[in-house]
Write a structure and sequence with these properties.
Blueprint lengths: L4 E12 L2 E12 L3 E5 L6 H9 L6 E6 L2 E2 L10 E4 L11 H11 L4 H14 L15 H13 L5 E5 L7 H18 L2 E6 L2 H7 L2 E6 L2 E6 L1 H6 L4 H6 L4 E8 L2 E4 L3 E4 L6 E7 L5 E3 L8 E12 L3 E7 L7 E6 L13 E6 L4 E4 L2
Parallel strand pairs: 3-8, 3-9, 6-7, 7-8
Antiparallel strand pairs: 1-2, 1-4, 4-5, 9-10, 11-12, 11-14, 12-13, 14-20, 15-19, 16-17, 16-19, 17-18
Helix pairs in contact: 2-3, 2-4, 3-4
Amino acid sequence: MTQSRVIQLKNIVLKYGHYTAIDNVSVDFQEGEFFALLGPSGCGKSSLLRIVAGFVEPTSGAVLLDGSDMTNVPARNRPINMMFQSYALFPHMSVEQNVRYGLEMAKLPESEIKSRVGEILETTHLTTMARRRPNQLSGGQRQRVALARALVMRPRVLLLDEPLGALDKKLREAMQLELKRLQHEMGLTFVVVTHDQEEALVMADRIALMRSGKIEQVGSAAELYERPASRFVADFIGRTNFFEGVARGGKVGIPELGELRGDIDAVGTVTYSIRPEWIRLSNNRPGNYENCLEGTVEEVNYHGQGENVMVRLPGQAQLVTVLKPANEITPANIQNGSKIWLAWNGKDARVLCQ
């Protein structure tokens, strides 16, 4: 079943004098999806989120909500809530008072306020903390209070600007799953801004990767990771190894390495990309792979789930990274300075023209 588009951004441009912060961006957010605006600092993702919220007016372009033009509608009149990284909780109020504040300002009946607050506190696992103040809570608990305060208003869309940036790694990973659970249970559209690719890959149904005010690619996490549209996308999402070469006759010629097979539908200068997890290591030249190169082990880094093996290939300035899993059935014998064969199949590589 096709999802309906809740928000449509059409040809959004945002300029500050001669500087273009957002450059002709068009993208849709669908009903009930978790959408991530991902990109490096300064790419325009937070500015785009503020345009959706109504805090910033675009230089040109349109913001549509359920097909209606909301471009010039003030933020307070949009059925959209925004949660900031700082959480902005009232320190003198309890958890319950923080959560009910927006409903009181909207002058809802007391009976409805009590019902909504009780329901959202239970959903966000805050019922037992209702009387505590923010300074009596952990970072993750304060994050849930800010989330509950936004969700209790029952917005059409919830916007989240770097919501997990202030949390440590373990808590951040737990809250990624918590946010996804809440979004799924409530069926709301969530739009999150993040510079953390892992965060986007875990939480989002679709991702828009931005660079320099433009969208490089929109798609699912698997689409961006497995079928990147450009070198920038391949480099930003996950880790990969790049070789510069010339494509012709279904192969890519790499200086001093010879010809490599890959997912090739191009002619001319290209970038050849192969992810570390698709490369196999062997002490002897393997006979069942399309691409085989011999190199020298320069470094081995242990990281619990396996080892990152750094290999120097002839004539290449950059080391090749290979992920050697800890549970490999027949692991190669790897030592610094030793010769090693790298092998992979062409279907696992990507050839990029941009």
